[in-house]
Specification:
The chain is mostly beta strands. It has a single domain, classed as Sandwich (Immunoglobulin-like). About 0% of the residues lie in helices and about 50% in strands. It contains no helices and 7 strands. It has strands at about 5, 10-15, 25-30, 35-40, 45-50, 55-65, 70-80. It has a 4-stranded mixed beta sheet, with no helix packed on it. It has a 3-stranded antiparallel beta sheet with strand order 2-5-4, with no helix packed on it. Strand 6 (about 55-65) and strand 7 form a beta hairpin. The chain is elongated.
Amino acid sequence: MEGPERATSDDIITVTYMSNIENALYKWGVTNGSLVLIEGENSSAAKFKVEKNFVRDTIWAESYSPDLVHNCSTILVITAGH
């Protein structure tokens, strides 16, 4: 997964995750809720808005095959700052 390791409140950040699964479907999530998915739910690239009072959060991404046989996932930890 590629994206910034640091962000501040009200930033819009873009994160990408390229799976090695053919015709992959994607799912994105956030562990603590201080980042909000605003674009790219079923895409290899997603945009997140950084909420007020942001300190640290984890974005996770999962890719899976259309037949749901294969899947893989990864995480990216982002902390406050630039």
